[in-house]
Each structure stands twice: as structure tokens, then as C-alpha cells.
Design brief:
Blueprint: H1 7-12, E1 27-32, E2 35-40, H2 48-55, E3 74-81, E4 86-93, E5 105-108, H3 110-113, H4 123-130, H5 140-153, H6 159-165, H7 177-184, H8 208-216, H9 256-259, E6 266-269, E7 282-285, H10 289-298, E8 304-307, H11 313-319, E9 326-329, H12 334-337, E10 339-344, E11 347-354, H13 359-372, H14 379-389, H15 394-397, H16 402-408, H17 416-421, E12 425-429, E13 435-439, E14 444-446, E15 449-450, E16 457-464, E17 472-481, E18 489-502, E19 506-517, E20 524-525, H18 527-533, H19 540-551, H20 565-586, H21 594-599, E21 613-614, H22 633-638, E22 654-660, E23 666-672, H23 674-677, E24 682-686, E25 696-697, E26 703-704, E27 710-711, E28 717-723, H24 726-735, E29 737-742, H25 751-757, E30 766-770, H26 773-782, E31 790-799, E32 811-818, E33 823-828, H27 833-844, E34 851-855, H28 870-883, E35 887-890, H29 893-899, E36 906-915, E37 921-933, H30 939-949, E38 958-967, H31 982-1002, H32 1006-1017, H33 1036-1049, H34 1051-1064, E39 1068-1081, E40 1090-1097, E41 1104-1108, H35 1117-1129, E42 1136-1138, E43 1141-1142, H36 1157-1183, H37 1200-1212, ...
Parallel strand pairs: 1-5, 7-9, 8-9, 21-49, 22-35, 33-34, 37-38, 41-42, 48-49
Antiparallel strand pairs: 1-2, 3-4, 3-5, 6-7, 10-11, 11-16, 12-13, 12-16, 14-15, 17-18, 18-19, 19-20, 22-28, 23-27, 23-29, 24-28, 25-26, 30-38, 31-36, 32-33, 32-35, 34-43, 36-37, 39-47, 40-41, 40-44, 45-46, 47-48
Helix pairs in contact: 4-7, 13-14, 18-19, 19-20, 27-28, 31-32, 35-36, 36-37, 38-39
């Protein structure tokens, strides 16, 4: 716990707890990590995250998206509830939580949980490190705080509680499995008894005699051995777990002062806040209903917004650019915070909920009532709780209110349709305290328009309870989204039927309300269908006719906003079908079949994820091969690890925001920054006229740093606004007036547009050929006698792009170090420090030696920070030179996604010939198209890897592939982990196409045929050469892994189980897939395959400092290099430290990419160490001759003391203790001859995945994944397994849930050329709930590799393609569903396999009602 008089307190500028002085009227009081804080005139627009980071410098709390969608900002906020006399601990998104709402609260950040300076780590933080559950570390604090808040409320959670607690946290690196493992130890063991005070296994509170004693002893149970009351060891109203009271751990308890805190009314403006918005705003916090009504009346003519959780208003302000003059905080009004059961004649009549009650509080209250109320009154309450489970995330539910959700009137609201179905009533009050009742179904008047007058407020929400126990009420909730956790709905629904018993028909429908979201511009009731059911007997005919009725009840325009029209219509039918079958069960009308039992579940059931790691630890010397922890693991878990935006503000630092193009293809007529320059705090506008060097930019110098007279895509840089604060800069940037004149030439927004208009980058088409593919295909096609032996397959397929979604966005800090000498230092979140250095020097017109580029660590990169981020640093440097001040630029998530490019979309056209008898692929002819965007960037490399990796693990004698790069008017696409690997998906799909076609001929199941085709064509020792004549040196490992993964996954047994499951289930299907991968290692550009290192040894203590050219991205590069140095020098690894990457230490660095970070940098470290060994060997022999006796080892292992003496002796003998290391390897490719060795070696893997899908909704879940990887002799197996798991999940996202949507011909409801899927609200990477329920990783044993450092292999990229096993398992499940409906023909499954594509391919009576021609129908996509 922070000391009251600690240096930390004074450093933070906090007021001592002992002071307890009164605070001014316009001030707030809170505690931060146990320290008392008073904020006078708080800026009402400032978030808690901004205050913690910028004012208190508690930078462990990160801002990853600024919209509450990633969880990096989670902290714990506690307040004392005077009604319950309990402390309420909440995990909240501090990026949304207004600072002003922290009044009266205690805030705990990750720094308050534990810190390294005091050598105090909480058990959560320890387990994060011990389980390798933090890689880049940017998201780590958020995960820790989510679990910490749970444990403060519930010391003995279940595994489900733990999983639910992190439903709002995203991680792009780990794949979540290690996090699950780290957190599982905090769960209550099955059967474990929980005591109230945590001191006994049997609760003394249950003893009647002791209860009587407590009355006389002020609540003391007297059950103490030492005579001390255990209640004194904890504060009243707050449970303290022994798991939280471990010795040496922080546990900041709720401040006593805040227990007696009386909130007062607030009226605070933003006038005195320098960092405020430009526009005036007043924040009110009334503490009584009368005060609220008065304020509402006074401001009824203004656009006033109410705030409880701020989850909507904050988004509107930041991303929709809304400026509100008046905001009223509704959190302190008793009447709005009550929730109670209203009774009549001792019977529960309704549940009355104040409009400010949070969703979490409602859920907790309803759970209690379900245990109390009779069963006939609980159906709706159960449905409400279930729907809340999937509403946003835990931190959002902890703050968001029911009233806010209702009044916001989102047409895709999760809960509004359910409230409508439950026939809820709203009580609305005006300033005269007059009230009126409005039925929920009549409240929504238009798009986000409700029946609420200018001076009215929503007072309460009433949930009516069934009053007749003889009537059966059935209520159910439904929601389908792109992802289960923390996602907005595509379609949502609430359904209710009330039944009366009938002697003839058994049950008659008395009431029916079928409400939907996502089917109109507002929440709607399917009136025609609802009315149809009323009065009808509940029988088969009624159900059938009701479904028919709904088909016409909810029309959607073909161009409806949000798209997915056919899917949404199908979902509306599927939901009703599920509801009707569930109703059959509730009424006991008949017994459900097994398949119906499974079908009526709203989500696929899942267990808490588990998994195992299998590897052999080689004995290769000190350090190498050992699973040592990340060297900064504890720093990441305490928030002490620093990233670019954590660097302390510099003297006279200013901030810059981007002005970017908003048209995809237009002339820039004029740029007028005058309105921006007139605003408070704005310093300058920077554009191309301020560039003193060169304004040309890009890998091929085909871009402009700042646009001059035209834009060829949205998201291109026009200028920068420089201001005193980031908020001022961002607001001013929006005011720069840019006028455009759109071009008359064709607008090219997709690959198909490019093909149509012949828009390709000239000179970039690449071909790989072997044998005579065209001739063989024509020979078979024109010779009917060959048709008995061969089958020709022709088809095409699309694959969408992928957003990098590194949790830390691109950013930089430019410091004019010695302005008189023209020197600059840049700190940036780049994978490419040297390119950043050179780009800045070029833009400034100075030599490269005047710019030093530094990187300590970055919060994820995945290729997205290799080239595209350099324009941000270059532009910021131009700004810094102009204003002669340090300039910081940190991109907002939506801006980052709009300007930095993504993974390339692909399109493939193919023709293949397969031998029907041998199952050999005899010929493949392919045209491969990738969408490069407006500039070439790294598209050449993507294209070359696409054509070189296409064949994957298969030898094909006649092979021809041609790769094309399309030039479009979209943002330039760029490097992404395992780029080019998209092509392997097409190869595997060709095999699936062959298997599906042959199934109709041979009657052998396609899954068995695809297995045999893969096995028959796999590379082996007889066919070890690729189409470009590269010999695969260790080719036998491909088949070895293929066989091993079948053994470790029980493939054959599970295949039978999948088949059995599918026979028993019509609406749930399972699929299983087995896919290999082969990935080439090395940069395609030979000169990038080089690395450097600098090793310094300090004679005073023998410590070793390493500087390398690689960047720590979370892949453990620094730790692995230390292990290599430890093994080479033969000294303990704790003697070694790796410093930040800096171009003044190691020059001409290659980007940390292509998986060769360790190969080139680690070997450079080894080479430098070997040079030092040569110098030190004579000293060692002189000091310790006995170590060299009877040994051929010239480098014996030394103890700490021995090493210190050797180093000190070397220094005094004037032997240099500094050495540089260098390493390179060569690759080559002759594209004219289609021959070469473009890779140093290959990394292999095979995976088996099993999935389950819901054929009625398209939801999917991964039951199990087993991976076998050949990564040589791993330098650090646990770090490498973390890379495998993370890459797999990232690949799984690429092939399933991650979908980029642009305004194009397929999505004309969105502005042309604009990216729709910006931010976590609409772009969905896998969440923790998406990982395989069982996830096992096996490393191939005894698999040395002579081509890389310490016989290891690269691991960062190769496993990513194994995520396609989920894609193909989904395909297998869809195929089984289609067969049930008589569809045995091949079907195209474009990637990603979203819920929409899954559902629409599971052809049934519902899809047939909304799709005119299922044979030609294809779900729309942006490619």
C-alpha cells in the first residue's frame, strides 16, 4: 500500500490523507490507490483514464480504443452504498468514465495492486508472469484489474465468474489460453465450502446459539482462538479473501472518510480547463429529483444529454463529433436509483426499476427475486438476465443504466425488444411532477426518436409480473452478433406468449408479443404475426402458419443500413422457430427430441478453456532451451513497463492531430485551416509547404507525405494541426475546411473493379511455373477418353483483409534534441527504427546521422508498424521543425484503422485436374489477385509470397500460378503477420472442391477424400522440390507432423464422434479438420536478412548489456537474445540485460518482421559473444586452469564470482570488453526462370480443430484444437508456444469473425471509399470466449535446425495459417447441414466464414424463403 508520506505521494502531487482539509465548492474528492485527491474545477470532458495518465502519471492504465471496447483502460472504482452499508467495487472502462463522476469514489489502478519498486506483486500479477500470459503487455493491466475487481467483490469465484469478468478485455498477442490458465487458480474448487469471513471451513453464522451471542457482542461470533474478533480484520461491508491477504501483497481498503461522504450538487463548466474542448459546456449533478426537474426545465430548449454510464454520450462526442452544451449526471437521485418489488394483496405485482439503475445491479436484483418469486412470474426475469449476460461487457454493465439504454433508442438494442415483449411500462415525469405512463412498444417513434418531451425525464421502468398462476407465461431472449462477447447485435429479439388452458385444444394463446431489433430503424413489433397467434390453439398448424406470417411482417430494403439483409430476415424466422419449439417444451406439449433440446439453446454451451503444452527441454548450455520468464514480465503486470505515450511530457511539448482525405478519388480544390487556427491553444497548421526536404514517400516513392493537389484514397494525410493539447488538436483538425472535386474517371474500390478496368501496378505480375499446367488441362479437357481417369475442377474464391488491431495504436514523440545542430530524437511505436530514421531525415532534408530512432517496446505490431507508421513520424518531425518544440502524435483507434492499411484482400481463379484413382493433383492453374490499395508499399512482397507459398505442403507436377497486384482507390494495404499465407487457403479449398466433386462420383464422404488427397500429394523424400526447384531439406517432418497430430488429437475417434453427433442433430452440426502448413523463412529482399548487435561488459560488476537491431513486440526477442548470450558466454542469464533499440547503437537495422528477428539478431549476439570469448579465453585459462583440464571445452561455465574476476582482469589488462556482432544469410529467386531459393529454410506445423455450429443462426464455437509444430530446438519453449497460440487465434480471426467492410458496390449504404469497420464496436477480433475449449500444443522433439541460431526455427508467422483448421472444420459442419437438406454439390465458402456466411450456406426452409436463387447467391463482401 502506498505510504501516506511516501515519495510516490509527493511525486504524484497528492494531498496527504492526514490533511483532510475542506475542499472548495466546485471540487471533487476521491482516493487513488489509497491517497486522497482533491480536484478543483475538474474538466467535465476529461475521462478518468486521461486524468490518471496525464495528471497523476499513472500510465499503467492504457487507452487502446477510447470507446470501452478493448479493456486496456479498466480500473476498479469503489463507492459506499449507504442503503446497503456495503462497498460496491466495480471494474469500469476509465476511458469512458468521466473524472467528475469519481467524486466520492476510491480508484484502484494496476499500480495500486502491486509494484516492483517496493517488491510487492499481487498474486494475480505473479501468475500472469509465471504463465507467460503477457506478451506485448499493453492489455495486461486491464485483464489484471478486471479479475482484481471480481475478487474484491467475490473472493471465491467460479470459473464462469472469472471468464465473465474478462468479457470486455481484448488481447491480440497471447491467444488468451495462458491468461485463462493464470486466472483459473483463483476459482473456487468444486465442492469447496465458502465461509462468510474466510476464516473457517464451516460457517459459524449458521449456528443459532452463535447468532444469539452475536446480538450481545456487536456481531462477534466469538469463534476465535486468540480472543480477537475476526471481523476486526476486515472492514464492514467488504469481504476480504485470504487469497487477497497473502503476505507482501497490496490490498488498499476502502477509505473510511468516503463512508461518511455526502455528495453535493455540482455545476461545473469547462471554462478553466486548458485541455478542454473548444466549445463551452456545463455539467450538472443534481442530488434530488426536484433539482433535476428544475435543471431540465431551465435547459429544455437546449440539446441536453443525461449521463449515468457515459457509454453513449462519450462515443457521440468523440466519434460523431457531437458538442453538448449541457450534460446532467443522474447518478445521485434516490428515486432514479431504486429497484423494488411492488406488491398488491401480498402478491408481487411488478418490479419497479429507477431509470438510473445499472444493468449489473438489475441483474443481481433479479437473480435474488428468481429465487423468491413463484415460477409463473420468473420467465421474463430469467430471459432478462440471460440477455444482460451478452450485453456489452462487465465494465459497461457496471456503469450503464437501463434508462440510458431505453432512451438512446438504438435500433439494435439488446434489451429494448425484450422489454417491449414483456409489456413494460415507462413512467415519465415533467417539471411539475406530473407523470404519464407509456407502453414500451409505443415509446419508439423513429430512428433514435422517442416519446419524451423536451422538459420530461424517464423516471421508472415497470416490469409486470404474471398475476395468474394458472396461466403460463413463456418469455425468451435472442441475439445474434458477429461475436458472442461484447458485440452489438445484428438482430435481437424478445418474445412472449401467455397461455390459458383449454379443455379441447389444451392451450390457447392469450397474449403474444414478438419484438425485434435490427429489422427496422427502431425497435419494432411483428404486429401481424403477434396478432395472428392471439386466440389460436397452440398446435402444429398454428406454428407453421405463424412462421409464414412473419415472412411478410418485417420487410427490409435491399439497401438497408448495416447490410446483411437476407441474413437478418433469416434470423428473424430462425428466432421465432427456436421460440416456438422452446414453448413446446415449456408447455410440456410433447417431449422434445435430442436435436430440438440442443436447438432451443440461445448459445452453444462452453466449458472454461483449458489446454496443455508438450515439449522437451534440451540441455544445450546456460539459458538456451529453458522456459525462462519474459525479462519484463513483472513490469508489464504492474504497469511500470513504458510505451511511447507513457513517456513523460517534455518541456514545451505540443500535440498534433491528422487532417486526412475524406474522398477516395478527387482533386483537392482548397484547404482552409483558418477556423482551426482561430481556436484556443492551436499553434500551427502544417502541410506540404512546410516540408524542407522531400515530400515523396513510400517504399517505391509513389506517395506524398502531405497531399498537394489530389487524393487517391480516403485516409491520406493532408496536414497536421499542432496545439497545446491533444484534445485541442483533434477538435481543431475537424475544422480544417477541405474542398474536393471528385474525378470523372472510374472509381475502383475492389478487386473486381480493378479487373474490369485493368487497374494493376505495372511490372509487378509474378509467375511460378513447373511442368505444363495449361497443356495438361487442355489435353484432359479435349480428350473424352481421359475423363474416366481425371476430373477437371474450376472455381473462384474470395478472401477478405484483416485489421492488425494492435492494442497500442501508432504513435510517436519527436524531440528536437539540439536544434542548433539539427538533431532529432524520435520515440515511436515502430517495427522499423531505421526506416523511421531515414524517412524523417528525408522529410527534414538532413543527413540520417542527425536523427536517432529509439524503441523500448511496442504494444503489438504484426507488420502494421513496419512501414505505414513512418509517415506519422515524418509528418510529426516536420511539425516539430516548424514550431521548434517537441511534438507528440498518438492516433485514435478509428484514425489508425483509416490511415495505416490492412492485410491484403485476395481473389483466386483456379482450374485443377485430379486423378480419380490415385487422388494425385496432376495440374493446377491459378490467377491470384491481391488488392494493393492506392500505393505499392509492400504489396510486391505479399504477391511474391502468395505465389511462392500457394502449393502449401503438396507436390504438384504441372503447376502455373500468376500473381497480380490491383491498384484501387482504397488505403494502401501493407504487411501483416504471415502475409502471402492467404494463398494457402485457396490451395486447401481446391482440395475441398476436388473432394466434394469426387464424393458424388465415388460415394466416399468428402471429409475422407480430402484427407486422402492431402496425404497422397504431400511432399516427401521422393518429391522434396518446390515448383521453383528449392529442395526442402527436412521434408520428412511434414508427414511426421501430419501423423503426430492425428495421434495426439485422437483424430479417428473424434471423427466418428462428430459423425455420430451429426446424425443425432439437425440444427447443431459439428465439423473437424486436419490441415498442414509449410512457411518459408526469410525476407524476400536479400539485403534485409542481416542483423547487428553491440555487447558491452562492465568490469565493475561483470554485468552485460546487449543492444540489438530488433524490436521487442511481445515475441520475447530480448529474452531470447539474453539466453543466447548466456549460453555463448556460459554465464547466468541474470547477468545480462538488453536495452532499448536505438539506431545510434546498432545502425542500418532490418525491420523486426518475417519471423527472422531471432535468426538475424540472436546470431549477431552469438557472434559478438564469441568474439568476446576469444579475448577472454587467455584470462580464464590463467585464472582458472583447473576448469580446462581434461576437457575440450574452451569456454567452461563460470560462477558469478569467477566471471567478475575474469572481466575485471581483462579490463586491467586493457582488453576491450565491447564487441559488435553481425550476421546475414542469402536467399535468391530468378523470376524469369522461376527457379531459386527464396527462403533460408521452412517451418512446418499441422493442426486439428473441431467446431460446433448453430445452423439456424450461424454461431460457431471451437470445441478443441491440437497443434504440432516443428520449431527446431526452441530457445525458449514457453515463449514460443505463446507465439503459436497467439498466431493461431489471430489466424482463426482472419478466417472467421474479422471482416473489413468498405463503402463499395456491395455496401452502397455507406459512403464510397470509407472504412465502415473502424474500432472495436464494429470490427471484431476474437475475444477470450472464442478460444478453443481445449487447446493443446506439441513441439516436435529432437528437431534441430542447422540454419538458425542454436538450432531453433522461426515461430512468429508459420502457425497463423493453422487457424484455417477452424475455417475448414466450419466448412465440414456446413456440408453436413446441407446434406440433411439434399444439397450435396460443392459450395463456395468465401473467407472470412462469418456467422452470416455460415447461416446462409446452411440451406433450409428459412433461407429458401428469403433468397431467390440459392445456387447463385453469395454473401456480399469487401475484397
Amino acid at each position: 500500500m502506498l505510504s501516506e508520506n511516501s515519495s510516490t505521494s509527493s511525486a504524484l502531487g497528492l494531498v496527504s490523507m492526514q490533511t483532510k482539509e475542506a475542499y472548495p465548492e466546485n471540487s471533487i474528492l476521491c482516493y487513488v490507490n489509497g491517497e486522497r485527491v482533491i480536484v478543483t474545477d475538474p474538466n467535465p470532458e476529461l475521462s478518468l483514464a486521461e486524468y490518471l495518465r496525464n495528471d497523476l502519471r499513472l500510465t499503467g492504465t492504457k487507452i487502446g480504443c477510447n470507446e470501452g471496447g478493448c479493456g486496456a483502460c479498466v480500473v476498479m472504482v469503489s463507492n459506499f452504498d449507504n442503503k446497503t452499508q456495503r462497498v460496491n467495487n466495480r471494474a469500469v472502462n476509465s476511458c469512458l468514465f468521466p473524472l467528475i463522476q469519481a467524486d466520492g469514489c476510491a480508484i484502484i489502478t494496476v499500480e495500486g495492486v502491486g509494484d516492483n519498486k517496493q517488491d510487492i506483486l499481487h498474486l494475480i500479477q505473479q501468475r500472469i508472469g509465471e504463465n507467460f500470459a503477457s506478451q506485448c503487455g499493453f492489455c495486461t493491466a486491464g485483464f489484471i484489474m478486471s479479475l482484481y475487481a471480481l475478487l474484491r467483490n467475490n473472493p471465491y469465484p467460479t470459473l464462469e465468474d472469472i471468464e465473465r469478468s474478462i468479457d470486455g478485455n481484448l488481447c491480440r498477442c497471447t491467444g488468451y489460453s495462458s491468461i485463462y490458465k493464470a486466472f483459473s487458480g483463483f476459482a473456487k474448487s468444486e465442492g469447496e465450502e465458502i465461509s462468510c469471513c474466510g476464516k473457517s471451513t464451516s460457517c459459524c453464522k449458521n449456528n443459532k446459539e452463535q447468532k444469539e451471542q452475536e446480538k450481545e457482542t456487536n456481531g462477534c461470533c466469538g469463534n476465535s482462538k486468540d480472543g480477537k474478533c475476526c471481523k476486526g480484520e476486515k472492514q464492514q461491508g467488504e469481504q476480504v479473501s485470504d487469497k487477497l491477504e497473502l503476505s507482501g501483497q497490496k490490498h488498499v481498503l476502502f477509505p473510511f472518510e468516503l463512508r461518511n461522504y455526502k455528495p453535493r450538487s455540482l455545476k461545473i463548466t469547462n471554462e478553466k480547463s486548458l485541455s478542454s474542448s473548444i466549445f463551452p459546456m456545463t455539467w450538472y449533478r443534481p442530488t434530488s429529483l426536484d433539482e433535476l426537474l428544475q435543471i431540465r426545465n431551465e435547459h429544455k430548449t437546449e440539446h441536453t444529454r443525461f449521463v449515468v454510464g457515459n457509454s453513449e454520450v462519450a462515443i457521440e462526442q468523440r466519434f460523431k463529433y457531437k458538442d453538448y452544451k449541457t450534460i446532467i449526471q443522474l447518478t445521485h437521485i434516490d428515486e432514479l436509483n431504486n429497484i423494488q418489488v411492488i406488491t398488491e394483496n401480498n402478491n408481487a405485482k411488478e418490479i419497479l426499476i429507477g431509470s438510473s439503475v445499472t444493468l449489473t445491479a438489475i441483474s443481481n436484483f433479479l437473480r435474488e427475486q428468481i429465487e423468491i418469486l413463484p415460477k409463473h412470474q420468473t420467465s421474463g426475469l430469467i430471459a432478462f438476465i440471460e440477455q444482460l449476460k451478452w450485453f456489452a461487457s462487465t465494465p459497461i454493465r457496471n456503469c450503464a443504466s437501463i434508462g440510458g439504454n431505453i432512451v438512446t433508442a438504438s435500433p439494435i438494442s439488446d434489451i429494448n425488444p425484450l422489454l417491449v415483449a414483456m409489456e413494460c411500462q415507462l413512467t415519465i415525469m415533467n417539471p411539475q411532477r406530473e407523470t404519464r405512463q407509456v407502453e414500451m412498444r409505443n415509446f419508439f417513434k423513429g430512428y433514435r426518436i422517442v416519446d419524451l418531451k423536451e422538459d420530461e425525464i424517464l423516471l421508472t421502468v415497470s416490469i409486470p409480473l404474471n398475476q395468474n398462476e394458472k396461466e403460463i407465461e413463456v418469455v425468451k431472449e435472442y441475439k445474434q452478433a458477429k461475436r458472442r462477447e461484447d458485440d452489438i447485435a445484428i438482430v435481437t429479439s424478445g418474445m412472449k406468449m401467455l397461455f390459458t388452458e383449454d379443455p379441447v385444444h389444451k392451450y390457447i394463446v392469450k397474449k403474444c408479443v414478438l419484438a425485434y431489433g435490427g429489422m427496422s430503424f427502431k425497435t419494432v413489433v411483428a404486429e401481424k404475426t403477434s396478432n395472428y397467434f392471439i386466440g389460436k390453439p397452440f398446435n402444429q398448424e398454428t406454428l407453421k402458419e405463424g412462421l409464414e406470417c412473419l415472412k411478410e411482417d418485417l420487410p427490409l430494403s435491399p439497401n438497408a443500413p448495416g447490410g446483411m439483409v437476407e441474413y437478418r430476415k433469416t434470423l428473424s424466422l430462425s428466432f421465432l422457430f427456436k421460440f416456438l419449439i422452446m414453448t413446446v417444451q415449456q408447455l410440456a406439449w410433447r417431449e422434445l427430441t435430442v436435436e430440438e433440446e440442443n436447438m432451443i439453446q440461445t448459445t452453444i454451451p462452453r466449458e472454461y478453456p483449458t489446454g496443455n503444452h508438450y515439449f522437451k527441454t534440451p540441455e544445450m548450455g546456460a539459458g538456451v532451451g529453458e522456459p525462462l520468464l519474459y525479462n519484463d514480465a513483472s513490469l508489464k503486470s504492474t504497469g511500470e513497463a513504458k510505451y511511447v505515450d507513457d513517456i513523460a511530457p517534455q518541456y514545451r511539448e505540443c500535440h498534433a492531430a491528422l487532417v486526412i482525405s475524406q474522398k477516395p478519388f478527387a482533386d483537392i480544390v482548397s484547404v482552409d485551416p483558418s477556423a482551426a487556427l482561430a481556436l484556443k491553444g492551436v499553434i500551427s497548421f502544417v502541410d506540404y509547404r512546410d516540408v524542407k526536404g522531400s515530400n515523396t514517400f513510400g517504399e517505391a516513392s509513389d506517395e506524398e507525405l502531405f497531399l498537394i493537389n489530389q487524393c487517391t484514397s480516403t485516409g491520406q494525410l493532408i496536414g497536421l494541426v499542432v496545439a497545446e493539447t491533444a484534445k485541442q488538436a483533434k477538435i481543431a483538425a475537424r475544422l480544417v475546411d477541405v474542398k474536393y472535386k471528385e474525378k470523372d474517371e472510374p472509381l475502383i474500390l475492389s478487386i473486381q473493379d480493378a479487373i474490369k478496368h485493368n487497374s494493376f501496378f505495372p511490372g509487378t505480375t509474378l509467375t511460378v511455373k513447373d511442368g505444363n499446367a495449361h497443356e495438361f488441362i487442355e489435353k484432359v479437357r479435349n480428350n473424352s477418353s481421359l475423363s474416366e481417369d481425371y476430373e477437371i475442377i474450376t472455381g473462384d474464391m474470395n478472401m477478405g483483409g484483416q485489421e492488425h488491431f494492435y492494442i497500442e495504436t501508432n504513435g510517436c514523440l519527436i524531440i528536437p534534441n539540439h536544434p542548433e545542430k539539427g538533431e532529432y530524437v524520435v520515440y515511436s511505436s515502430t517495427q522499423n527504427p531505421t526506416l523511421t530514421q531515414f524517412a524523417i531525415a528525408k522529410a527534414l532534408g538532413v543527413p540520417a546521422h542527425k536523427v536517432v530512432s529509439k524503441v523500448k517496446r511496442i504494444g503489438g505490431g504484426f507488420g502494421g508498424k513496419e512501414t505505414r507508421g513512418t509517415f506519422i513520424s515524418s509528418a510529426a518531425a516536420v511539425a516539430a521543425a516548424k514550431v521548434n518544440r517537441p511534438v507528440r502524435v498518438i492516433l485514435e483507434r478509428d484514425v489508425d484503422m483509416a490511415v495505416t492499411g490492412q492485410r491484403h484482400p485476395f481473389h483466386c481463379k483456379y482450374t485443377a485436374v485430379i486423378n480419380k484413382k490415385t487422388l494425385k493433383l496432376e495440374s493446377v492453374d491459378v490467377n491470384l489477385y491481391c488488392n494493393g490499395g492506392f500505393s505499392i508499399d509492400l504489396s510486391r512482397g505479399v504477391n511474391s509470397r502468395g505465389v511462392l507459398l500457394f502449393e502449401n505442403c503438396y507436390h504438384i507436377p504441372n503447376y502455373h500460378i500468376k500473381g497480380h497486384i490491383c491498384k484501387t482507390h482504397l488505403q494502401s494495404n501493407t504487411a501483416f503477420r504471415a502475409f502471402g499465407g492467404q494463398a494457402m487457403l485457396f490451395m486447401e479449398s481446391i482440395i475441398e472442391h476436388c473432394a466434394s466433386t469426387l464424393e458424388n462420383i465415388t460415394q466416399v464422404p468428402s471429409i475422407e477424400l480430402s484427407y486422402k488427397i492431402r496425404e497422397a500429394n504431400m511432399y516427401n523424400t521422393e518429391n522434396p522440390y518446390t515448383p521453383y526447384k528449392m529442395k526442402i531439406d527436412d521434408v520428412e517432418r511434414i508427414q511426421k507432423l501430419w501423423k503426430e497430430v492425428q495421434d495426439c488429437s485422437d483424430y479417428r475417434k473424434r471423427l466418428e464422434q462428430v459423425e455420430q453427433f451429426n446424425k443425432q442433430n439437425k440444427y447443431r452440426k459439428r465439423g473437424i479438420s486436419l490441415i498442414p502448413t509449410k512457411y518459408g523463412i526469410g525476407f524476400g529482399l536479400p539485403w534485409l536478412n542481416q542483423g547487428g548487435a553491440l555487447i558491452n561488459i562492465y568490469h565493475e560488476d561483470g554485468s552485460v548489456l546487449i543492444s540489438i537491431g530488433g524490436v521487442e513486440l511481445g515475441q520475447g526477442l530480448m529474452r531470447k537474445c539474453e539466453q543466447c548470450a548466456s549460453a555463448t558466454l556460459n554465464i547466468p542469464v541474470d547477468f545480462i540485460h538488453t536495452c532499448e533499440t536505438s539506431t545510434d547503437k546498432v545502425p542500418n537495422t532490418s525491420p523486426t518482421a518475417a519471423s527472422v528477428g531471432l535468426d538475424i539478431n540472436g546470431q549477431a549476439v552469438v557472434n559478438a559473444c564469441e568474439e568476446l570469448n576469444k579475448r577472454l579465453e587467455p584470462i580464464k585459462r590463467k585464472l582458472y586452469p583447473e576448469l580446462f583440464e581434461n576437457s575440450n571445452n574452451n569456454n567452461p561455465k563460470l560462477t558469478h564470482e569467477q566471471w567478475k574476476k575474469v572481466v575485471d582482469a581483462a579490463y586491467h589488462n586493457t582488453i576491450s570488453l565491447s564487441a559488435t556482432g553481425y550476421y546475414t544469410f542469402t536467399v535468391n529467386m530468378d523470376w524469369e526462370k522461376s527457379i531459386g531459393r527464396p527462403y533460408k529454410y521452412m517451418t512446418y506445423g499441422t493442426a486439428c480443430s473441431e467446431v460446433e455450429i448453430d445452423t439456424l443462426t450461424g454461431e460457431w464455437s471451437v470445441c478443441r484444437t491440437d497443434i504440432c509444430m516443428d520449431i527446431g530446438n526452441s530457445v525458449n519453449p514457453e515463449i514460443d508456444i505463446g507465439q503459436i497460440e497467439g498466431a493461431f487465434i489471430q489466424g482463426m480471426g482472419l478466417f472467421t469473425c474479422e471482416e473489413l467492410v468498405w463503402g463499395d458496390a456491395e455496401h452502397s449504404w455507406f459512403p464510397k471509399g470509407q472504412l465502415f469497420t473502424k474500432g472495436p464496436g464494429v470490427y471484431k477480433i476474437p475475444s477470450a470466449n472464442d478460444v478453443p475449449v481445449e487447446f493443446n500444443v506439441h513441439l516436435l522433439k529432437d528437431a534441430s535446425n542447422p540454419h538458425a541460431v542454436y538450432s531453433s526455427k522461426a515461430v512468429g508467422e508459420p502457425p497463423l495459417f493453422l487457424g484455417s483448421t477452424v475455417f475448414f472444420a466450419i466448412r465440414n459442419a456446413i456440408e453436413n447441414a446441407r446434406k440433411d437438406h439434399g444439397k450435396k454439390n460443392y459450395f463456395i465458402l468465401d473467407s472470412p466464414a462469418t456467422c452470416e456466411r455460415i447461416r446462409m450456406l446452411c440451406s433450409d426452409e428459412f433461407t429458401q424463403q428469403v433468397v431467390e436463387n440459392e445456387e447463385t447467391y453469395r454473401v456480399k463482401g469487401s475484397y
